[in-house]
Amino acid sequence: MTGQPVGSLLGELRRVAGLTQEQLAERTGLTVRGISNIERGRVPRPRRRSVEALALGLGLRGDQVHHFVRNVALYAAIAAAAARAGLGSAVRLG
């Protein structure tokens, strides 16, 4: 399984915030390609610094940032465990 739940979460929050990938990239200092790769599940475990930048770029504040970072880490850990267990894409979180 790839990090699709992480990407789904990011993509959904980005759309709710009314941002394009380009706008989010400008706000975070990340590349459009990097954001696209996360959303498509090509980066199943994004770096914490990137996740924090994304949270702030999405307009999250205070506890929202903490919860977002924690949820991304949790989704990534579950996806990695599922992949190790051979569950592949059978596990869906979002």
From TrEMBL:
Residues 12-65 form the HTH cro/C1-type domain. Gene3D superfamilies: lambda repressor-like DNA-binding domains. Signal peptide: none annotated. PROSITE patterns: HTH_CROC1. This is Helix-turn-helix domain-containing protein. GO terms for molecular function: DNA binding. Coiled coil: none annotated.
